[in-house]
User: What shape does this take?
Amino acid sequence: MSERISAAVVAKVARLARLDVTPDEIDRMTSQLDGMLGHFADVDALDLSDVIPMTQPFPLVNVFRADIVRPCLDRDEVLAAAPAAEAACFRVPPTGGES
Amino acid sequence: MSAYDGLPGDWQLVVGLEVHVELATQTKLFSASPNRFGDEPNTNIDPVTLGLPGALPVLNEQAVELAMRVGAALNCTIQPCTFHRKNYFYPDMPKAFQISQYDQPLNIDGYLDLPNGVRVGVERAHMEEDAGKSTHIGGAGGRSHGATASLIDLNRAGVPLVEIVSRPDIHSADDARAYVNELRAILLAIGASDAKMEEGSMRVDANVSVHKPGTPLGTRCEIKNVNSVRSVGRAIEYEARRQIDLIESGDTVRQQTRHWDEGDGRTHTLRTKEDADDYRYFLEPDLVPLAPSAEWIARVVAALPMLPAARRTRLAEATGQPADSDAVTSVVERGQDDYVLAVAAGGGNAARALVYVKEAFADSPAVPAADLAGLTLLEVGGALTATQAKAVLAELVANGGGDAAAIAAAKGFEAMDTFALEGFVDEAIAADPDAWAKFCAGDGKAMGALVGLVMKASRGKADGKLVAQLLNQKKG
Amino acid sequence: MSADSNDPGTPTASAVAAAVRAGTTTAALVVEQHLAAIAARESEIHAFNLVLAEQARDHAAQIDAAVAAGNDPGPLAGVTIALKDNMCTRGVPTTCSSKILDGWKPPYNATVVDVLRDAGAIIVGKTNLDEFAMGSSTENSAFGPTRNPHDTSRVPGGSSGGSAAAVAAGFAQVALGSDTGGSIRQPAALCGVVGVKPTYGYVSRYGLIAFASSLDQIGPFTSSVEDAALMLDVIGGHDPMDSTSIPQPHPSLTEAIQHGVEGLRVGRITDLPEGADPDVQERLEAAFDALRAAGATIVDVQVPAFTFGLTAYYLIAPAEASSNLARYDGVRYGMRVEAADTNAMYGATRAAGFGDEVKRRIMLGTYALSAGYYDAYYGKALKVRRLIHDDFERAYQHADVLLTPTSPTVAFKFGDKGDNPFAMYLCDTYTIPTNLAGHPAMSVPFGTGAEGLPVGVQILAGTLQEPVMFRAAAALEREANK
Assistant: This one.
């Protein structure tokens, strides 16, 4: 019985991540993720109220590039690697309703 | 708060506009492919643009410069900022996330003043990258509905954008159009963008809601696919009425994104997805913070050209015409105001110059300012009637300049000085003392007889207005 | 010919390069020697996804021609190198050991690849890894595991198992791997070779297929500390294509290792999480003794937040990964499963293309970032990261380097961690905190443990303290070779 994460949430997360999952996989993932979240509870006891989040390992600021054109990739080489191409574009199935 | 004239009852319109503007850089925001419209599909591409495995973004310094100019021109505070990832799946979004700005954007808390004096707050103007373009094939009219496939062109992916978010301070379709026009004029003046809605370098989304005064704000809908200034007005008007009809029939307005269809003049829902997108914003780990120095900010602010609002004020003061008059706004919009001021600086009459320029020149006046100055003086000095001045102006335009007085003489428009005119008036008074007596007693019709005498004596060269003026002066 | 840093017969990379440049040997010969080693044992070891025999021979011919023409072929002339198959090599398949990129040929080179080629190094192949660098055993590869050259019933470690094995088996002089939570250091320890993760930003990440952007770093596998120093001297440095790349130039590590450890303060972390096997502990103690004998001082330090590294890591890394791996959607490259609309195509493609561990981490990462859960998971983990970083900084006020085990155990048997992902995660207990802090660390072989299997000792140092870290490593290596 999972306490921290439910199968419904797992199914929703799978949709968000665009990962098709079978019901068996949902069950398995739910119990595995629940187990992991249980391990992660070790930080719940820490007082983090005054701690500033650390997002950058090395403090840099203002890294820029000059606004100068550089050679582009070869379109043929790129489209040759595409699963489907047409009219010099990447071809995909219909997006289904959004514009 | 001005109510929209066309709305029934005491319904009020509340509009906020989100405008995406493509910046006029040579290269993309995070990579060195060209930022160009109209090229062959998928030719302006590189690993970063394609979202290839292993590619990394590097920030274009000129894009920052232009974004700061936009912020400065909109009276924003320019501040240290960061970039975030906005995660969502769509075929024209190559990394399946857009690098944008979230809780620490570059420009905040500004405003834009409309020509009519309304001040529209600008909540933020942040930097982000553009997506590619999808073309839907196989369906009707290029719409995604019923299409058999989509073709993706990534030329536009990665182009630098500034997203300008207004506060909901717009309360009429006219003001919405004015906001878009004014914003466009500002962007052109500062060289940040060519802001062409027809090419997509300026895109407008409208957030529309309605409510009655004293009640809470209504639920808003976001209207997308508004591709011209005219559509901005039409879409807002339609949407306002749609919402009012819903509410008045007992239904509720649901918060949703709607698509404007210029063809049928209506907004439509896009297919609602089961779950609203959760963008899972987090700080972009492949970039570092952006903190423009105080010196850089000061330089950007100092280098701003005179903006349209200030130009209108300046022209209004010089010509005595209201800043929101049609003459002043259109002359400034066309960039002709410097010319009018040059005419005035050359001794000419600014008010007349304004009229001439508005009527005769679609854009850059092709007549030397000094020549036009001469014409204005002839007219205000009474040497030429308004009609005669117009004829001389036409000649100046056709020849690209010339001596106004010589042209007038060539056309037989003699310079009738005031002394000679006064002489004709005195003679008329003497010739018809009855009419004069009636005129002095307050009979306005009697003036006609006197004017007629002056016209006959001067063979039609007298300026009727000046004659009337002189008669009134003599009456006392 | 197997490479073993305890074997004085193994030539160093600089020796090979010197010989090639002097003309006392040829690059062609060097390449043939390594290709022969590959032919002898690769079918058993499976270190490579792809062996580049033709290209290697061609490149060797070019190097030899340059030498004959009196031109300088570079500091790594003729040095054979194996690259982890998550580094983009133009025109050469780069798969991340995943079905979703099977057969994909990048249209560009990673920066390190260009740097190595310019230095005269010869790429002999792309090595196997845990899929998308997620794992500690290389068992998560979609193309089959790599086997430990010391005992082929055991794992080489991961995720850079192929690169570690390639050096250990003598298939290449040196190899490159990537390290996000220990993926260079742990396989180095299990395979008995040197493995280095430099300071975050030391080596360009442009062209390294991202797993966790704020943690990933490229580093070398070598059979000697001297070779590792040379490799980092060549591949380290600023890259304008990587915004997180450190702008200032780095001091020579080849020079640094000339110096000993007299007066160096070596820290013992007294509150280190338990869990290392007794044979590993014994080797660690021996390492402390060795450094003390070489003139270093041992000091006690504490890093209280060290123990929370696993939690912070397994929230931050999957979160970044879930975003980095979203681009594998079947639109522009790689595998596609066709479907009626794009969302269906995404779902089917990614389900078919990703293995279980990758899916697990994408799910965990997506969850940790999602609305309503960000503060409790990802947001909280970023704060724990700060604590870990700050605790290390405090420790480095009292010590120049720290010493810990690299891996809690020697190489384990295939399937040993069973179905429990967390059991595998524990392999990285000692390596993970360094990545979170952005600090450098390296594993140096130091004797053997159970079953005669190699044991590695981990040296940690502060930001850009590679010189002092390498000094300690060189001293340990000298002691180990006595």
About this structure: Residues 36 and 474 of chain B are 70 Å apart (CA to CA). Chain B has three domains: 12-302, 309-410, 418-475. The longest helix of chain B spans residues 229-248. The mean pLDDT of chain B is 91.
